[in-house]
Amino acid sequence: MREDVINENDFSIGGLSPVSSYRRLLAYLRPYRSLFALALLCMVVFGASEGGIPFLIKYILDGIFANKDETLLYALPGIVFVFVCFRALFDFLQQFLMAKIGHRIVRDIRLAINSHLLRLSPAYFVSNSSGSLLSRITSDVMLVKTVLTDSVASVIRDSIRVVALLATAFWLDAVLASIAFVAFPLGIYPVYRFGRRVRRLSKR
User: Fold this and answer.
1) DSSP strand E in the chain: where?
2) Do 121 and 25 share a domain, yes or no?
3) Is residue 1 a part of any domain in this protein?
């Protein structure tokens, strides 16, 4: 029987390309697509709420300092408390759901590996150490969980946050946001070059 293992040299499964390997791993996510969709919704709400922070600050500053609205000053703690609780709730839900999906995927993969090992010939266990098998069942499976849940969640959540903040910046002041959008990459490049030079000098 063909052993499907994670190749440590090219990060592929059974000699497959990385893309094909990732598609194969995604099959473990399909049974939990409803939970993943719910987690994705929570990520969208949490990420979009990031764009609400500048609006909240503008509303507070304009109301208290510009318009001198004293009633807003008394309502400020409640507004901030509700907003923070709202963000914390959806942050907790998306982390809880993704953790639940991740642990179920780990369980499914370990059951599949255990079932596969039980069908192998004794010669396989003679030629492979028990430490190597335990490593694949424990650490390698946890790496798969990280790729399928933690990494995917981070990419989606952070992408939504960036889009929300950019949209908010252009909504509040399109001219200033455009200037910052152009100036920021120009400012990063010298820092990047300086960092590379420092690293080269430190290796000498």
Assistant:
1) 6-7, 12-13
2) yes
3) no
